[in-house]
Amino acid sequence: MPGATPFRSIHAHGFVRVGAGTPLATVGDVAANVAGILDLARQADAEGVDLLVLPELALSSYAIDDLHLQDALLDRVEAELAGIVAASADLAPVLLVGAPIRRNGRLYNSAAVISRGRILGVVPKSFLPNYREYYEKRWFAPGHGLSGLDILLCGQRVPFGPDLIFAADDLADFRFHVEICEDYWAPLPPSTLGAMAGALILCNLSASNIIIGKARDRALLAQSQSMRAIAAYCYSASGPGESTTDLAWDGQAMIHEMGTMLAESSRFGMDPELIAADVDVSRLRLERMRMGTFNDGAVAAGHPEKRFRTIGFAHRPHGRDVGLRRSIARFPFVPADPRELDADCYEGFNIQVEGLVKRFQSTAGKAMVIGISGGLDSTHALIVAAKACDRLGLPRTTIRGYTMPGFATGEETRANAWALMRALGITAEEIDIRPAATQMLADMGHPFAKGEPVYDVTFENVQAGLRTDYLFRLANHHGGFVIGTGDLSELALGWCTYGVGDQMSHYGVNAGVPKTLIQYLIRWCVATDQFDPETDRILTAILGTEISPELVPADASGAIQSTESKVGPYELNDFFLHHIARLGLKPSKAAFLAWHAWKEAEGGLWPAGFPEALRNSYDLATIRRWLESFLFRFFTISQFKRSAIPNGPKVSGGGALSPRGDWRAPSDGNAKLWLDELAAALDGEG
């Protein structure tokens, strides 16, 4: 619906608000059950929910055993179902209501799909449990294989069967499939075929009595199904009020998206509960397009979409600003959960070390040559090299580190570089590049060589190029190879000097690591005692220095050259990189997500140990400014550098920019399409 809804509406950005409701159940009081269902439906409507999943047999109650075969109860179920259908005419959410429904002399444990006064279809349960505490085959017929049928229900002739996909005609990617309880315990759940047929939201109406440990099993199944099917999975189970003759109920409700829990219920409550989350259906569609194996699975299954019926409906999305009900990570590459962060840092650091170990073993080199500036990137590359030497059983003197002060090198970073090299015990030297740089500038007729304060790109790149030139020749001289220090964020922005510059090396250990993660990898090394206390002290000091290329002298006020004032905050650039390059989202959606993630420093989660003083916030205008800069740099001026990058290990699931791996793009592209899309969405916004 681009252009049809306001920028601040979730419906403008490919989200569907999905809810799971747990009404108070009864022991077969159908009228009371309906009242509870409608209360939750009205609450969901008020909260902007698009799709509401209710428990299995919520209309009749689940644990009523042989009462399911009483016509008096079944007549009342159909009569009350008609009342829900009528009431739904004034409600926005599509309702998934569990009910026992008669058809052709059989009774089916079913889900009635209801929208705006219309029954869209009825989905019978495919797999009926009939073991241990379950006896469903005593009352119900299985729905498996009942394709292409219909049913007369509440005065409407509607589709009937497990072969139904429901798709909104007026809200892109709002496509869902329905299964019931035991179905997702089967080796091949019906929702697997539903997903391969095009459903992006998988819904499960469940009763599912609770026993010790079962909540974990349900969550595992929902999580894994959402991951394997590249889908959202919404699950709602019966809660208090059901008969406890032999069983008990906890009211577990969950919403997962590609393996991530978006929302969950409190369980064991005595009141009705509604959970809701905004499912990113456009992201799911894009991920399926990107992952050929998912589509190969559909081919191997005989193209399930040919066997499913798609039931269209007019959803009439509201398009209002209803906020955003999902957690948006400020740092997509840095988990907020301390345990996940520790695990990611352990893996990330060791991936880099393993990559360097193998590359060094594969060469005839005698030395690892690296330029040490005292900044984050070279610091991290150096400690990776040090750990690689330890793992190979080589002395750290195998590493030849060079600090190469230029016209703007600060004393603090130079001192940190020397202190770190000494603490790690590597072979350390210094080469002052200023004489060579002055000579080169003079040979070129550059104004700086005549004493003029001209600090242009030539002035900067002469220094950057000389440093790399020295490193390559030193590698020749000492029988070694050059370790690259540039990171993933710099590659995205083109913030590196092409060719004989920091874009080039023999092996780039940091090429798969974004700037926002590098500082956490260094912190992890300190926290886990990878090195000695003196090294840890220096690493901590380096973490507190300003990010700067130190190529231009300080201004009259003493302010040093700041990278982020030129290219924008790395925390925003890494956010844009993940959502645009990795996920393929439109710039307007990346801006929408960034605004929700960064508009308030006090809201949301921060990574463990993130300093209070550095907890920034950004308004929409600032986000737009730096997103436009990112788009220009990423799509227009930087790809030629990425097309020629050296080898280096992929580190993050968020992606890499190697032309041999995650990202292939033309070196002569441009950003106009992306900038136009952003402008169309944001012009007129604050």
From TrEMBL:
<feature type="binding site">
    <location>
        <begin position="371"/>
        <end position="378"/>
    </location>
    <ligand>
        <name>ATP</name>
    </ligand>
</feature>
<dbReference type="InterPro" id="IPR014445">
    <property type="entry name" value="Gln-dep_NAD_synthase"/>
</dbReference>
<dbReference type="Pfam" id="PF00795">
    <property type="entry name" value="CN_hydrolase"/>
</dbReference>
<dbReference type="InterPro" id="IPR003010">
    <property type="entry name" value="C-N_Hydrolase"/>
</dbReference>
<feature type="active site" description="Nucleophile; for glutaminase activity">
    <location>
        <position position="181"/>
    </location>
</feature>
<dbReference type="GO" id="GO:0004359">
    <property type="term" value="F:glutaminase activity"/>
</dbReference>
<dbReference type="InterPro" id="IPR036526">
    <property type="entry name" value="C-N_Hydrolase_sf"/>
</dbReference>
<dbReference type="Pfam" id="PF02540">
    <property type="entry name" value="NAD_synthase"/>
</dbReference>
<keyword id="KW-0067">ATP-binding</keyword>
<dbReference type="GO" id="GO:0008795">
    <property type="term" value="F:NAD+ synthase activity"/>
</dbReference>
<comment type="function">
    <text>Catalyzes the ATP-dependent amidation of deamido-NAD to form NAD. Uses L-glutamine as a nitrogen source.</text>
</comment>
<dbReference type="InterPro" id="IPR041856">
    <property type="entry name" value="NAD+_synth_C"/>
</dbReference>
<dbReference type="GO" id="GO:0005737">
    <property type="term" value="C:cytoplasm"/>
</dbReference>
<feature type="binding site">
    <location>
        <position position="214"/>
    </location>
    <ligand>
        <name>L-glutamine</name>
    </ligand>
</feature>
<keyword id="KW-0547">Nucleotide-binding</keyword>
<comment type="similarity">
    <text>In the C-terminal section; belongs to the NAD synthetase family.</text>
</comment>
<feature type="binding site">
    <location>
        <position position="461"/>
    </location>
    <ligand>
        <name>deamido-NAD(+)</name>
    </ligand>
</feature>
<feature type="domain" description="CN hydrolase">
    <location>
        <begin position="16"/>
        <end position="281"/>
    </location>
</feature>
<dbReference type="InterPro" id="IPR022310">
    <property type="entry name" value="NAD/GMP_synthase"/>
</dbReference>
<feature type="binding site">
    <location>
        <position position="641"/>
    </location>
    <ligand>
        <name>deamido-NAD(+)</name>
    </ligand>
</feature>
<dbReference type="GO" id="GO:0003952">
    <property type="term" value="F:NAD+ synthase (glutamine-hydrolyzing) activity"/>
</dbReference>
<dbReference type="InterPro" id="IPR014729">
    <property type="entry name" value="Rossmann-like_a/b/a_fold"/>
</dbReference>
<feature type="binding site">
    <location>
        <position position="490"/>
    </location>
    <ligand>
        <name>deamido-NAD(+)</name>
    </ligand>
</feature>
<comment type="pathway">
    <text>Cofactor biosynthesis; NAD(+) biosynthesis; NAD(+) from deamido-NAD(+) (L-Gln route): step 1/1.</text>
</comment>
<keyword id="KW-0436">Ligase</keyword>
<dbReference type="InterPro" id="IPR003694">
    <property type="entry name" value="NAD_synthase"/>
</dbReference>
<feature type="binding site">
    <location>
        <position position="485"/>
    </location>
    <ligand>
        <name>ATP</name>
    </ligand>
</feature>
<protein>
    <recommendedName>
        <fullName>Glutamine-dependent NAD(+) synthetase</fullName>
        <ecNumber>6.3.5.1</ecNumber>
    </recommendedName>
</protein>
<feature type="active site" description="For glutaminase activity">
    <location>
        <position position="125"/>
    </location>
</feature>
<feature type="binding site">
    <location>
        <position position="208"/>
    </location>
    <ligand>
        <name>L-glutamine</name>
    </ligand>
</feature>
<dbReference type="GO" id="GO:0005524">
    <property type="term" value="F:ATP binding"/>
</dbReference>
<feature type="active site" description="Proton acceptor; for glutaminase activity">
    <location>
        <position position="56"/>
    </location>
</feature>
<feature type="binding site">
    <location>
        <position position="131"/>
    </location>
    <ligand>
        <name>L-glutamine</name>
    </ligand>
</feature>
<feature type="binding site">
    <location>
        <begin position="495"/>
        <end position="498"/>
    </location>
    <ligand>
        <name>deamido-NAD(+)</name>
    </ligand>
</feature>
<keyword id="KW-0520">NAD</keyword>
<dbReference type="GO" id="GO:0009435">
    <property type="term" value="P:NAD+ biosynthetic process"/>
</dbReference>
